[in-house]
Design goal:
The chain is of the alpha/beta class. The protein is 40% helix and 17% strand. α2 crosses α7, α7 packs antiparallel against α8 and α8 packs parallel to α14.
């Protein structure tokens, strides 16, 4: 049940459920996208309300007591399951179970502004709550959560290793591809009744760091665009095309219809055989530093950069 729909007396009862914790000698002020939150207790019971926060918690060695369900591979992404010992499931990322959060007695809640802005006042009454500005900002999520949980040094080490891998990949890719580096990359997705071009998002952020370029027609504001007619296919082109899509019969049908169209066959990436399907969890849904490293692993393999020495 969403907390904002509860009668006032029941909401008050849920607040009483949150027992006081031992106070830290030095309270910490954590700045986030909706203001400043003071943490007076050690963070031992963490609740994460978006996929990238759950990924980040695992990277920091934290096992959340409550998480929102994954978008696919429900209830949790397979790459995280071994590190998560039956956390309480708190519904959808877009509509988390706020009553369930209250019963968990969390020390810290981590959400995202454009997902949870409206319920932030209620969340912050249940426990100290941090709002990350962007669910796809894996760097920002790591820095914010590392500081809030007292793991700032571990966070710095993780980002340092990531930066070293990025530099290594860029050097190797440039040597391997020569004048063809860096290619422009189009990011596409197919759904049950339409196709999408992603101008922004998790995969684009990672590709930007790695040095790939964006097709001129895709250098626009916003997450991207939905395409509902085959006449839009020419807008999907790049020197390389990566496609992420769920394993679903309706999605596969859309994919076959669009990629079987004559306009698709005329795309430069299709003619040069530079169209590739990739894992939608790694490339789109995971949203954290672990997923970013898995995506980079994919790209090392894709470009044949064997023997990469760096691993995080």
């Amino acid at each position: 049940m969403a907390l904002h729909s509860l009668p006032p007396f029941r909401f008050a009862l849920l607040l009483v459920l949150l027992s006081p914790m031992a106070v830290l000698a030095t309270p910490r002020e954590i700045h986030h996208t909706l203001g400043t939150t003071t943490l007076e207790t050690p963070v031992q019971r963490l609740v994460t309300l978006y996929q990238g926060a759950t990924d980040t918690a695992v990277a920091l060695g934290i096992e959340p007591v409550g998480v929102v369900e994954s978008w696919s591979e429900k209830p949790l992404y397979r790459y995280l399951r071994d590190e998560l010992d039956d956390p309480r499931l708190l519904g959808l990322e877009t509509q988390p179970d706020l009553e369930g959060i209250a019963w968990l007695h969390p020390d810290l809640i981590v959400g995202a502004r454009h997902r949870h802005h409206d319920v932030y006042p209620l969340l912050s009454r249940l426990a100290p709550t941090l709002m990350q500005g962007d669910v796809f900002d894996f760097r920002g999520s790591l820095e914010l959560m590392a500081k809030a949980t007292g793991r700032a040094e571990r966070g710095r080490q993780i980002l340092s290793c990531w930066d070293a891998r990025v530099a290594d990949f860029r050097q190797r890719a440039a040597a391997r591809l020569g004048d063809a580096w860096p290619p422009t990359v189009a990011l596409l997705s197919f759904r049950g009744d339409h196709a999408r071009i992603y101008y922004d998002g998790f995969a684009r952020r990672v590709l930007d760091e790695l040095g790939f370029e964006v097709p001129i027609d895709h250098q626009k504001d916003g997450w991207g665009i939905k395409l509902t007619t085959h006449e839009s296919i020419p807008a999907m082109d790049g020197e390389t095309v990566f496609i992420f899509m769920e394993d679903d019969p309706a999605v596969e049908r859309t994919y076959r219809e669009w990629t079987g169209h004559p306009l698709w066959q005329r795309l430069a990436a299709v003619r040069s055989d530079q169209v590739y399907r990739v894992d939608p969890v790694t490339w789109n849904m995971g949203g954290g530093i672990l997923a970013a490293n898995r995506m980079l692993d994919d790209l090392y393999r894709h470009y044949g950069l064997a023997g990469a020495p760096l691993s995080c």
